[in-house]
Fold each of these.
Amino acid sequence: MLSPPILLSCSVVPLPIFTHSPPAPIPTPMALSISTPTSSSLLPASRQAGRWSPLARSAKPVSFSLWRSPLAARSAAGNAPASPVDEVVTELDAVAGFSEIVPDTVVFDDFERFAPTAATVSSSLLLGISGLPDTKFKSAIDTALADGECNALEKPEDRMSCYLTKALANVGAELAQQVPGRVSTEIDARLAYDTQGIIQRVHELVNLYNQHDVSSDRLLFKIPATWQGIEASRLLESEGIQTHLTFVYSFAQAAAAAQAGASVVQIFVGRLRDWARNHSGDPEIDEALKKGEDAGLALAKKVYAYIHRNGYKTKLMAAAIRNKQDVFSLLGIDYIIAPLKILQSLEESVTDPDVKYSYVPRLTPAIGKTYEFTEEELVKWDQLSLAAAMGPAAEELLASGLEGYVNQARRVEELFGKIWPPPNV
């Protein structure tokens, strides 16, 4: 999978590789916002007010931001006023009243003109920055490569890993100065099966961010949803450190993550659909298909119902959105990561002012009371039950995603090895 996002609009929030047909890379959400939502789990409470700009078209590296119009916010609050006859209302206005929209792209022009609300820093973003001749973020990487603590390490692999960690924190700290919301930091996928390794790396990053005066409430850590990653999430959340579990392709992973208290769980709707088109033999997917349901959408609905049935704090994010119908089918979910072409189509589609409020959420907390779960699904998940329940789709997609992330991290370290030492060091 993974071709690193170079800074041009592209779909990215980096994610995966495959044995069969490679899934589309994961989104690195970027800014596309008009106004901040009235509330957002990605924005600290003290930073949830303000106006932002419409559709950004080019330039500085950033990711993970939310779009919601003032009209949508009023509609979501249930107090939208009657529309003037000449009011132009787009489908994007209508759908943004029910879910926060996360644009899937990786490039921005200028923070003053196109202000993103939050950001994600990852290996793919570092590759993109390193490929630019002139960007303020380049100095953050040069500073990491000049770090004395890293330089003192004897083993080349330890040095490169140290540079990678420092570079992520340096770039993330720069982004924290540019956005009002949280900065999400990718955790090295090579630690995916090492609970203590994940926790240690997160603590290292928290300390580095604190040295840059970035407080913990501004941070989110993106961890693969292996059992070890879920257990790391549980322990980190108990310390007040917010986590974002990714590579979730099964109900068991999502339920275990919610039980662990993960702040955000990300499901890849389109990738599950793609897998189902070319494979069979996964009980969870086969059950959805028997009911005439789309495998990815069915999983999102089931997980949403589970979270609300049990009152978990976890927010649910849908990624790998393939078309506008996916957006309509997911209305009500906390976050939807959608490609720019879909958002532009929604923005260009004008709805009748009298029709816009007929858009209704497909996912509401009430479904938690009516959704039928089996006794096996309502257990307290542990490593053995998770492994037994994941199924071939989740196993394959998780493995391919991890492979892609690992390859990206290695590419960054190889690049750092070639350009070290930086100028003036």
Amino acid sequence: MAAVTNFTYSASPFLVRCCSMKENHHEQLNGNSSIRMNGSFRSPIKVESLSQTAEAAPTTLVENGQRQNIPTKKQLVDSHRQGLIVGVGYRQTVVIRSYEVGPDKTATLESILNLLQETALNHVWMSGLLSDGFGATHGMMKNDLIWVVSRMQVLIDYYPIWGEVLEIDTWVGASGKNGMRRDWLIRSQATGQIFARATSTWVMMNRKTRRLSKMPEEVREELAPWFISNQAIKEDAPEKIVKLNKEAKYTNSNLKPKRSDLDMNQHVNNVKYLRWMLETIPDQILESHQLSGIILEYRKECGSSDIVESLCEPEEDEIVVNGIIEPDYCTNLINGLSLASSDIINGGGVLSYLEHRPMKYTHLLQAKGEKQNEEIVRGKTTWKRKFTTCPFST
């Protein structure tokens, strides 16, 4: 029968089981005898040393009241995150992991959005402005304020592949009187090839009332030294997204957030919104096309008790060609809307033009209500044909 010995490790006990085959078991452990392991002889571990090690261990994981050890001053280099401050911007080196890619071994859009969020938070971390909130500064925490994104746009030329090393640059700038703009640039570390660009607009919300708030002067003073005017995506006027109605072509109803979908601010993470939107895209499109652009306009936060409906409408009528959904370009050609395209004039021909013309969808996520539904996010996605070969050497 196995003898059971209890050792106490700080506040929590753990169990060590020792099989006693002979009466002189402890004498053998304390002696100079050796144990054969994988063909070689090694000295046995003494039970006393385990007890001594356990007693010497710290009593808590928190040191000086702060596990995270958030910097209180600007840090130029962070070796753990492979990041550094460049001017007032931030650059981080990342490797695409196996769990960040899809069946085609390229990074998913969800993974890219997660990387954008992570580098943004690390930028605030290294600036010395981060308090204990989700990207909130010290001044924001004093005023019970949190960041919420109001608009985001991502343009993707090429998707990174599994194992590829990327450099992600991010920086911030002013957006009106009370908002902040954050931009990103994703490139290949090996070639410098730009993979994706992104821009976003952020506003402040009171953590208790859940109402939007003006930017306090002390917060403005914290952020202003980090503002620059560069833009990853230049827009003369933001593209407006129309509101869909219940007659949308594709719908997915009764979507319920899970606990794992909530972020540190206790509302559904924006990456989850994207997943709900993409689930309404026809399978044929997902197999033959890849998303090249997305615009998201956030209207209302989504909580754990909300029941969500996802609506999707193609911008053009669709037809089926060889089992694949395609936009009804013929109607547009007949109406003279596309005959002036440079792809046709320059000799690419109508078939080449139809092959490479992107497809666009309008999206809406809304929370179901007893009297009326409430908008959560409006979106627009652009899709282009997948590359059969890598467009450039890596």
Amino acid sequence: MASSSLVKLNASSSSWIGQQSFNQRPGSSCRLPVSNRRVSVVRAAGSYTDELIKTAKTIASPGRGILAIDESNATAGKRLASIGLDNTEANRQAYRQLLLTTPGLGDYISGSILFEETLFQSTTDGKKFVDVLRDQNIVPGIKVDKGLVPLPGSNNESWCQGLDGLASRSAEYYKQGARFAKWRTVVSIPCGPSALAVKEAAWGLARYAAISQDNGLVPIVEPEILLDGDHPIERTLEVAERVWAEVFYYLAENNVVFEGILLKPSMVTPGAEHKEKATPDTIAKYTLTMLKRRVPPAVPGIMFLSGGQSEVEATLNLHGMNQSPNPWHVSFSYARALQNTVLKTWQGRPENVDAAQRALLIRAKANSLAQLGKYSAEGESEEAKKGMFVKGYTY
């Protein structure tokens, strides 16, 4: 198909090629017939279309969400250091084994995003982590981006690298058992955001999504709008609408199958340093307004990130968004908002593993109830109410 060949022609490109992305430049030796230049063709995502849609629907199943444990080795080291542990592979493996082997986890968790190290690891008993997940009907996922770097020509902003070699890496991840992928880029409101940064974020996400689908992985599309700043919630809504409009424009330009993707947006909140905090009802109202204006109903699932909110805040806000029917499955893809109490309960001690796993189930169940619109914050611990926002936080 002409559209597929055009997609693959640019599969390794990491640059934004602009409004004329599928028209040949003057003087090009590879010219399309005039009649074919502006034809809109739905991309079939190769032989994986049916599988992609099935995987996305499995993850977006009632009462379940995503456990994100895809922290890089450096970030995992920060988490371990907070409880006095060295950043060694054995310690990272022990912590992730604690999380993934929690009995009953699959009742509340439908997918887990892994770091590459974890995808290829096994438990201390020799069972592959991907098989541990499958046995609980949890879909294994994989972080595929290569992190943020400065964006030249911008207002001190970043872009996400990792498109080079993504197709071959994705094929290996699929072979290992991964069935969905994550790519995180960020937009900073205090930094503008500049038109360049928004377009780079949207184009990178779209290329990643197309390449992922071509290799059998459901892409999680994640342009995180950072909490940093003292702006009001109305400013966040304005920026979020602009970002998501750009993202869906380029997803369509790249012929991404919307039924085979998942979104991981930030909630629409005031800046973390704004003088007035918003209630869960207000956050739900603004966030759903943005989604209904920008996200097609063909998208099966919207799995929110917590972005530095406290465990209870993240759960309350999710609950608020599920008080009335939505066109999509509105759920969670939390890292710190699922792990914070778990880590502090564990403290790296084998005798605390059971208690830590119970703490994980408490948080997972709370968010499951929030996804169903049935959560109550009554009885939540003071630890779960502590905010986790860190200004200028890096992963």
Amino acid sequence: MEEDKYAKELEVAVRVVHVACALCGRVQERLLETSNDHVVSKDDDSPVTVAEIFGVQNVSIVAEEDIQTISKDESASLLDSVVNTVNESLAFASKYGLQSPETTLGSTEVLEAISRCNSTGGPSGRYWVLDPVDGTLGFVRGDQYAVALALIEDGKVVLGVLGCPNYPVKTEWLNYHYQHHQTMAQSSQITPDTGGKGCVLYAKSGSGEAWLQSLIDGEKMLEWPNRARLIRVSAIDDPALATLCEPVERANSNHSFTAGLAHSVGLRKQPLRVHSMVKYAAIARGDAEIFMKFAKCGYKEKIWDHAAGVVIVEEAGGVVTDAGGRPLDFSKGMYLEGLDRGIIACSGVTLHEKFIAAVYASWDSSNL
């Protein structure tokens, strides 16, 4: 039956993201408690951490990370940390309804797992798209980050899962977490019953439904679908009442152009500045209404930075296009080729049309 299509893939993807969130949570707590000896830099100056590890045998995966950094002789201690953390997390896989390996993994097996994430995507076939730690700067600072996993088939995103380990289930706890992210290790004691430290969002394309689960804590088991609840985008369509999500990082986005657009459309509320694809989660949950990203010249958007978030926002009732109003094209490989100026995600058609019109009115006078 059509409604059952991808049901198994979605369930497994959600369980895997729960495991990955648990892995990342352990590493983040250790980073906050100790020095950042195991944080290195990627070519684009964002950090790589020991949490960024994932691999599935006989599955085609497009992923951000590779084995180059941790395969070097001088990275032996980093590799040891990766292997130890992976084994520690896999030992608890049964808690999330997944089978744990019969024996612990060695460094060779872990490196082989990472090396399987070598697909380049494209217009045909089925492949998974993974960003194991989206928003690594937020991750090492104890702030927001996301674990993003999407399934693409013949160039179309068919399902997406977004784990947000530090994004509380209850919206009223959101400001608390932002104001006190430097003490995240202490605030991690918040349980789902009192605010929910983190959440997992997921959606299947064409279903018209997006779902949210709380991360499980303590000795609890993940029971599918784990008290998942439907989420919907905000009904606000007045720009004066709308909230804009902004990237924290200035390296790859033009904040001044975004601020100019926001002013011209009539946004008046203080923007919500947050790392990573948590911005898509905020829109899907109704915590914000707009997310815009206009990359600086020469920067190319990667599919793993958007695939999971886009399908979740769309199935929650939102709209995501490039700045020309066209759907994002995930069929061109690892990058969003042919992107018209930037990306605009909105909670509804009315706001989206206002921003598209503002882009056309403002573009010629911008300095992009």
